[in-house]
Amino acid sequence: MSKITTELLLERAVPRSTRLRKIETLNLSKLQLKTGDLDPRLFSRLRHLQKLDLSDNLLDKFPNSLTLPDLRVLNCNNNKLEDVTALKQFPLLEELTYENNVYLTLNDDYKVMFLLQNLRLLNGKDITKLAKHVRCVNSRKLTSKVTAHWEKCFRHQLPEKYTAEQVKSIKKKFLKSVQTNVVYGPSSLSEFTRWRVKMIAEEFLAYSLGLEINTDPETDENMDESEEESTERPREAAEDAAKVGDFSSGLTNVTVTPRKRKRNRSKSGSGNKRSKSQANAEEEAEEDVSAEPLHFLQCHSKGNSREDFKTQLWSCVFEPLLDSGARKDPIVSSSRTVATCGGESVCLIDCETGMVLKKYKVATEEFFSVAWTTLTMVISNSRKKSHNILAAAGRRGIVKLIHVAADFCYGEIKAHKKPIATVCFSPTRETHLFTASYDKRIALWDIGIPDCDYNFKASQLLVLEALSIPLRIALVPTCPDQYLLAGCEGGCFAWNIKLDKEQKSRPFEAVFQFPDEDGGMTTSHRVDGLAFLNDDVIVSKSSKPGCIYLWSWSRCFDTKGRGSQQTVSAVILAELEWSTTDLSYLTLSTCPAKEYVFCGDEQGSVWMYNLSNYTAAWSSAKGKRSDKRIPPTQILKWPELQANGEQLSEVLVNNVVSDPTFTYLVVLTSVNITAIWKKS
Known about the structure:
Number of domains: 3
CATH topology of the largest domain: Methylamine Dehydrogenase, Chain H
Mean pLDDT: 82
Radius of gyration: 28 Å
C-alpha cells in the first residue's frame, strides 16, 4: 500500500489545505518514500502545485507522468536518483536541487540544463548563461558535426531508391558510428555529448529520410488518445525567447476528432442564409466527393492550453522540396510538410501523419504570414548545400528567419514599425523578400545568405508606396522581377519593381477598376484575396459580396507603358459563385498545376473550383467572358467537432491552401483549428 494518501497530502501542504487542487506548496521530505509511492493518479490532482520538497527520501527515479503542470521549485536532495531525464515533464521548473545523489554527475547537470528551458537555479547556482550556451552553441556545433559525419560516411551508402530494410540498417549503423566518432567538449562531458548526439542524429534522420523519432513509451501509454497527440522532440539551437524566440520540445497538439460529418446540403439555422443560386451550387457540389478529412489539430494554443479556441490562424505554405530529397515521400511527388502560423507560434506539420514536427514561439508576437525560400549555404570545408529557410512575420513588424532543419532562428529583420500583413519571396531571386505592412508600404529586402556561423547582412532594396493597407501581394508569373500586384484595403494596384531603375521609393503604376453593385466601375473596394491561376489569369475577391472575379493580366495592362499612373479596367473573364457574406479577410488561393481555386467561408466550408474546362477558352485571342457565374465543383462542409464535450461553432475559414499537386488541403480557421484534408 502506498505511503502517500489524500489525507497525508492535505496534512503536509503548506499551509494545510482542504482541497488537493488548492495546494501550492507541499513538503514530503523525510518519509522514506520510494519511486513506487509517487502515485500519478493522486499527483495529477495537484494541478496548482508550484513548490515540492522530496528531499531525504529513497527515490531512484521519477515516474514519467506525475502531471504537475505548474511546478516551479523542486527539491530532491539526499535521495538515490540515477537519472534526470524524466524531469522534462516539468517544463516550467525554475529552481532545482538534487545534491547528495551519489549517482548523478556533471553530465546530468548538462542534461537538465538542456531539457528545462526555464531553469534558472541548479543546486543553488545561477546557470542562466551556461544553460543558454548548452542549448544554443553546443547544440549548433553538434548538429554541424552530425550532419558532416552523415555526408562524409553514410550518404553514399543510401541508394537513390531505398527500401525500408535498407533505411533501418543504415539508421542502426549511423547511430552507432556517430556516437563513437562525434567528439566535442571535455571528456568529463562525454556521456552528455553521446546523449545529445544520438538525439540530434535521430532527428536528422527523421527529417532526411522521413523516419519516426523514438518517443518515451511510458509517456505514450498514458496519453489521452481522444484528445492529445504528443511528440517529444529535442530542443536544439534556439535563441533566447526574449530575442528571437525558441523551438519547443514536448509539443502538445490537441487533435479534435469529428463525431460525424455534415451532409453537403447545408441546413438553415445559424449564420447567413444561402441564396437560391448558392443552394443550387451546393447541390451540384454533392456530385463530386473527392476529399476526405485526415486531421483536426489544435497546435497554436496560447500557453499550450487545451481551452484555447480563440487564436486566429492566418497563413500556411507548403515547404519546397530540396534536390537532396529531404523528407521526400516515395509516393507523393510534392512536399507533405506545411508551415502554419497564428497567435504566438509557427508550426511545421506533416500532413499525412498529423504530427507537429516543429513549433516556434515568440510570446510577444502574433504571426500573420509565413514564406519559404531555398538558400545555398556554405556548410563546412567550403562545401555548399541547399537548405530551406522560413520567414515569419506579424504584429511586431519584425521578420524572423528560421533555419528549420537546424531548429535555429538565426536572425531577424526589423522591417516595419507597424504590423506586417503578408510576406513572399521572389521565385527567381531566392534572397529577395517582399514585406507588406500596415504602414501602407511594401518593402523589398535582400536577406543575404548566412555563413557557417549564421552571420548575415540584410538590406532594403525598394519601397513601394500604397494608398491603403496592402493585404495580399502577388508577383506576375511572366515578369516576376518587373511587376507586383497588391490587393489593398482601398483597391488593387500594380507597381514596377525593376531594380535597374534608380528610384528606390515608388508610387503605384496602375490601379484596377471593377464592376460595382450599381452596374458602374469602381477602383475603391477592399481586395482581401489575390492569386494567379496561371501565367495570365488573376483571381481576386471582395469587389462585392458573393463574388470572386477571374481577370486577365495581359489584356488589361500594357507592360510597355511606363511612367505615369493610370486607371485600368480589369478585363473580366468569369465570376465564381461564392458565399453572400460581407465578412472580410477570408482569403483565397490557387493550385495552378491542377487549375483549382479554393476559398473558405463564414460557416467553416471550403469552396473548390476546378477550372480546367475554362482556361483554354480564356487563353484564346477571342476568348470571351463566361456569361454565368461558375458554381463550385465541390463544397467541403465543416464536420461536427466536439471539443471538451461541446460542439465547435461559428467557424470562419481564414485561409485554405493545397500543396502543388493537390494531394493535401490545409484549412486555417478562426477557432484555433488546423484542418487537413486529403484528396481521394
